[in-house]
Amino acid sequence: MKPLTPAEPVAQTAIRIESHLREPEERSLADDVLDGLTRPFKELPPKHFYDARGAELFDRICELPEYYPTRAERAILDARAGELARLTAAGELVELGSGTAAKTRVLLDALHEAGTLVRYIPVDVTESMVRDCAEELTDEYPGLHVHGVIGDFERHLDRVPPAVEPRIVAFLGGTIGNFPPGSRRRVLREIARLLGPRDYLLMGTDLVKDPEVLEAAYDDAQGVTAEFNRNVLRVVNRELEAGFDPDDFDHVARFDREHEWIEMRLRARREHTTLVRALDLPVHFHAGEEMRTEISAKFTPERLERDLSASGLELVRWFTDPDKLFALTLSRLAPNPADDPR
Ligand code: AVJ
Predict the structure, then answer these.
(1) Quick check: CB of 97 below 6 Å from ligand 1?
(2) 175 Cβ below 6 A of ligand 1
(3) Residue-wise pLDDT tens for the chain (342 aa)?
(4) Residue 91 contacts residue 166 (beta carbons within 8 Å)
(5) Which of 294, 298, 299 to mutate to test the pocket of ligand 1 (most atoms within 8 A of CB)?
(6) Residue 41 C-alpha to ligand 1 middle, in angstroms?
(7) Going by CA atoms, what residue is nearest to atom 5 of ligand 1?
């Protein structure tokens, strides 16, 4: 990642959008399929769930009675937004994986009310979402500048413009849980590079709890999560001319107590071979073979603090909902011992 350039004044036009996608995105799916489907234990990374249909299914998941994280996080934000605005005095909000920016409005409202809000910087792979929310938010908040970055927060964080105001970098929804422990710390370290000494990371993380509650949240009665899971096969079919029949796979969601994460898998109902034409790759499944499609890590306060401090961050505040289902944490750069004159 290239070093951040010194602060430059915010542009005069209210909306500025930069795209850093196109071909590389397709490449990444091809690479992930080639890598993941030729391993002894097949695996696909969860980021490929989210085409238009996948995003829609995810929105439906957030409304399900079993899927508590969205509601719990929302409740914490509602209760704490004012406090967060006062504490951070942030002039800009950077949001990683901004989507429809539904929860963002709670934060923007609070910063607007505190009189500090200047700029919103959504970072998302879905161009239409960034454009639409830029239009809506500049209407809703007169004077607000929106600098949209269309890109993947695993690869394009160096495209986030340098801070001109104290900032909050928001990484909500528990998405950090989709990264296994090593990559999780790498992602956190990269995010930490967006922070200066007066800036904060606001992150949502799901908490360890009764496995039955967890498994129900990822295996709902209506089967929406099952369809979401199978959607990755439709993405591969369309993008890489593969011939998967989603009906050949069962949805599996299990809490792994040792790793404290939910694991989603697709289990082949019968032995079969499918050709991924764009890669000239035949993929064989034996009956009952499982392919991992997502991990969603659940945290304890201790483990989260260790991940943060191993990534150069220091926990400032810990907020949870009344049922302690979910946590929002505010952290900042840990003081660098080398800078300490003592
Ligand atoms: C959006 C990644 C936080 O892990 O809970 C929901 C995705 N997967 N149901 C999560 C998801 C299955 C979700 N995140």
Answers:
(1) no
(2) yes
(3) 444 455 555 545 788 988 877 655 556 899 999 999 999 999 999 999 988 899 899 999 999 999 999 999 999 999 999 999 999 999 999 999 877 677 889 999 999 999 999 999 999 888 888 899 899 999 999 999 999 998 888 888 999 999 999 999 999 999 999 999 999 999 999 999 999 999 999 999 999 999 999 999 999 999 999 999 999 999 999 999 999 999 999 999 999 999 999 999 999 999 999 999 999 999 999 999 999 999 999 999 999 999 999 999 999 999 999 999 999 999 999 987 666 555
(4) yes
(5) 294
(6) 22
(7) 296
Ligand 1 midpoint to CA 339 (Å):
39
Among candidate residues 95, 263, 250, the one with its CA nearest the CA of residue 178: 263
Name the 3-class secondary structure at 265: strand
Kindly give the pairing relationship between strand 313-320 and strand 326-333: antiparallel
Q: Which DSSP letter does residue 295 get?
A: E
Contacts of residue 82, defined as CB under 8 A and 6 or more positions apart, other chains included, come to: 110, 113, 114
Burial 32-65 (b: 16+ CB within 10 A, else e): bbeebbeeeebbbbbbbbbbeebbebbeebeebe
Read off the pTM: 0.91
Distance 251 CA to ligand 1 centre (A): 14
Single out the residue of 146, 153, 152, 148 nearest to residue 191, CA to CA: 153
Q: Is the alpha carbon torsion for 125, 126, 131, 133 positive or negative?
A: negative
Distance CA 138, CA 212 (A): 43
Tokens of 157: 């964080």
Question: Residue 205 CA to chain centroid, in angstroms?
Answer: 10
